[in-house]
UniProtKB/TrEMBL annotation:
Record's keyword terms, sorted: Metal-binding, Zinc
Protein name: Protein yippee-like
Organism: Linnemannia exigua
Position of the signal peptide: none
Organism lineage string: Eukaryota, Fungi, Fungi incertae sedis, Mucoromycota, Mortierellomycotina
Calcium found in the keyword field: no
Amino acid sequence: MGIVYKKYLHGEKILGCNACKTHFATHDHIISRQFHGQYGKAYLFSNVINVYTGEAEDRSMRTGLHTVQDIHCAECATVVGWKYLVAYEQAEQYKEGRFILERTLLHYVSGA
């Protein structure tokens, strides 16, 4: 896969990988805290860094059918959430192109 170059965020509340502390996003970039994932609470973000996506697949979720990709930590490859590609229900289309990170898989990294 080659060398992985990680990006680092600055701020007081940085969310990172629970396993390796790689930075993903700042607390201020949370769009919504009203989501649930496989392990409980989850957060919706418009963008995250230091991740890569898996294969696209259709999943039936609480809010209907969606095409999603799992997102993996670029450093340790832990699956930390998913990216919405397509929402088939019109009311859910605001999620398209956005990311879910599972709270139990996150760690608050001290800011720089």
